[in-house]
Amino acid sequence: MFDIFQNTTRPNRDLFFHKNDPNDVRLGEIVSSNIEDYQTARIVILGCPQDEGVTRNGGRIGARHAPEAIRRQFYKLTPFGISLKIFDLGDTIIQSSLEKTHDLHAKIVEQLLLDGKKVIVLGGGNDISFADGCAMAKICGSENWLGLNIDAHFDVRSDEPRNSGTPYRQLLEGKFIRPENFYEIGYQPQAASPNYFDYLRNLGVNLISLQEFQMSSIESEIHSRLKSVDSPSAFFWGFDVDAVRSADAPGASAPSPIGLAGEAFVALAAFAGKLPQTKIVEFTEVNPNFDIDNRTAKLVAIAIHQFICCTK
Fold first, then answer.
1. d(C-alpha 257, C-alpha 152), whole Å
2. Cα 251 from Cα 88, distance rounded (Å)
3. Cα dihedral: 104, 110, 113, 115 (round 10)
4. How is the chain split into domains, by residue range?
5. Distances in Å between the alpha carbon of 51 and those of 54, 123, 185, 299?
6. Which superfamily, per CATH, for 8-310?
7. Would the pLDDT of 217 be above 90?
8. Which of 139, 211, 246, 307 is 20 to 30 Å apart from 26, CA to CA?
9. Three-state SS for 292?
């Protein structure tokens, strides 16, 4: 068996907030990172603190600090509505190259899925979606999982080497996911290449712009999909905070004055939790270097909280 503990670093215990009030317990006081508690946990948190892919893509760096920033805010929250046991595995050990980090991260996630865990991945750059998608394909089968990219951008750039803008092209061209099982949700036309739009449309990918999303119900779309004969048995949700308007998420790698409201972002995470097919939720592109009053880290922490609350 692949040893997930030898290939991750334990989380910093200083991030686990303690209020020391029996009438007001916080998540930092009940979430465990002790190895002996792993087996009984239903949900596992895993960080990947790197932004090499963002650097390669010419973005503003800082996302490598996100797992720590998100944990700091998450562990201040109360366990209200949470009944499942949560285990914090810590962070994937960053390797000498982005490619090697992806390979290692994928192996860790594969083992978590084999162990029957629901996985919450904290990026880092959005390039980690390639590693998480590879793990989904390996364990669930490339034809049996549905991927949803909640993002202002398509992330199907044809760049070499890989970067934070290439993960979904890698998954599609590597045949790790079927195009009809892939959704691009919340993309913003002014931030998206028409060439990549045509590329995705010609493949048969499901394309839902920000405006279309705001006028429709993704829940109805997913429920309709679940009734089909070839319904996917596993779901992956990639939540890139670039999808959220900068008023609610100023600490993003590529902020925009328009986008999803924070409430809509959290509601999507809650919906992901309601679906028993959801195996991985991934949060990327939080950039603490540009955050204001930890607003973006707090938003993701709340989204994680609501995902767990809705997971049964």
1. 11
2. 24
3. -90
4. 8-310
5. 5, 8, 23, 20
6. Ureohydrolase domain (3.40.800.10)
7. no
8. 246
9. coil
